Amino acid sequence: MMLVLLIAVSPLSPTVNAQSVEVTKLDYVALGDSLAAGVNHQDQLGMGYSDFLALQMKQTLVLGDYSKQYAYPGYTSAEVLADLKNNVFKPNMDGSPDTDGIQKQIMEAEVVTLNAGANDLLAVIDIDPKTGVVSYDEVAFAKAISQVGVNIGSTVGLIKTLNPNADVYVMGYYNSFPYLPDTEQPKLLAALDNLNKSIQTAAVSTGATYVPTADAFNPNGKTYLPNPKNIHPNEAGYLVLANAFWRAMEVKDSQDFSDVNDQMYSYDAIQTLVQKGIIIGYGNGKFGPEDSVRRDHAAQMLTRSIVYNPNVPPASFSDLLPTNPAFAEISVLSHYKVLNGYHNGTFRPTIELNRAEMAKIIVTAFNLKGTGKQYFDDNTVEEYWAYDYINILAENGITIGVGNNRYHPEYQVQREEFATFIYRALQKQTTN
């Protein structure tokens, strides 16, 4: 498989301010149609959501083998199921012969993602190429929706029969036709909603996790689908899909720390982020909840929380060497303008992050919005560079301050604080 060619990012330090901790490697198989295969808005095979998920699993040090060789453009839910039943063999991602077959790869996988059903629906929906009018036979449409549910349920059921311990994640679809007339959008969205409900019911009833994507994708559909004649996303759109999966995934077991207990406000946040591979302890049984967070460690935590394309130009700060374990992560966040350097060209990777900086990077990384309402008595100067970031953080329920209606922007950020802020931001994205 072309894993070495596909995933070309700098190796990470296995911990954030920590000693080395051994982790279990997870084999990942992606099944489905052109979205799993990675067809882009130019009808070329490239990086799809499954590829970005594989990169993210590699970054969190849990990826074993990765395969999307059984995903195929144009596949219906029936064809995905048929491949699994018939134990098909398809060339490996590097072009070499497949000696395993789909069933063996499923049996050895810890993570399986599945998207199928959109092509079933497209077969019974007619869209006039001149007027954009959408029409379909209601009986045929209802039958197709029902059959998608049956096929998804059968596919997940067979995966679970082959491998009862596999974590299966099934994707709901986005609106592929944002350019059609506004008069037709209600019909499209109703059809999409019915399709997704059928997929969700089938996934949940068979022990899989349903991954919704429409709420995150649809509001910016034209941005993510820049070609009006093509239903496939660009890179930004695929990252939206990958992040929807990543928010739903757990890649590690929970962990008991001698200095963390269930009476702490940060307990749920710490355990959730451990299970998602975002944070770990020091390797000596401790987490260090009250320890300060360095800027380079914050970069590692953020890039493990959010799926980015890591193939960006290297950062060029005068005090940041490529040998820094967080060099790749800092490069990514610098490229996406989440974490900046200083006016003198330095980054200062080892200095502690303060609460003003934390507000800025959380708001920017998670694309949080606000109205500008003031929240804290010690954040009243509108000209202060972090004024809006702090207020937006509060408006979104990510922070309530430190008491007495104060935020203390210059205080250093503790590890449990940063974990809690990331946890709340992820929760907000999941519930929106």
Number of beta strands: 7
CATH topology of the largest domain: Rossmann fold
> In sequence order, what are the helices and strands, one letter per element?
HEHHEHHEHEEHEHEHHHHHHHHH
Provide the domain count: 2
The CATH superfamily label of the largest domain reads SGNH hydrolase
Q: What low-confidence regions span 5 or more consecutive residues with pLDDT below 50? A: 1-20
The first-to-last residue Cα distance is 37 Å
Shape: globular
Strand order of the largest sheet: 2-1-3-6-7
What share of residues is helical? 40-55%
Tell me the β content.
Answer: 5-15%
Q: Taking all residues together, what is the mean pLDDT?
A: 92
Task: Sketch the major β-sheet.
Answer: 5 strands, parallel
Rg, rounded, reads 23 Å
Describe this structure in words.
Helix content is 41%, strand content 7%. The chain has 17 helices and 7 strands. The strands form 2 sheets. Strands 2-1-3-6-7 form a 5-stranded parallel beta sheet, with helices on both faces. The chain has a two-stranded antiparallel ribbon with strand order 4-5. The protein is globular.
Question: Helices, strands, pairings?
Answer:
Layout: H1 3-6, E1 26-32, H2 34-37, H3 49-59, E2 63-67, H4 77-86, H5 102-108, E3 111-115, H6 118-122, E4 125-127, E5 134-136, H7 138-162, E6 167-171, H8 185-205, E7 209-211, H9 214-217, H10 221-224, H11 235-248, H12 267-275, H13 295-305, H14 327-335, H15 355-365, H16 387-395, H17 415-431
Helix pairs in contact: 3-11, 4-7, 7-8, 12-17, 13-14, 15-16
Domain SLH: 253-316, 317-372, 373-432
Keywords: Signal
Protein name: S-layer homology domain-containing protein
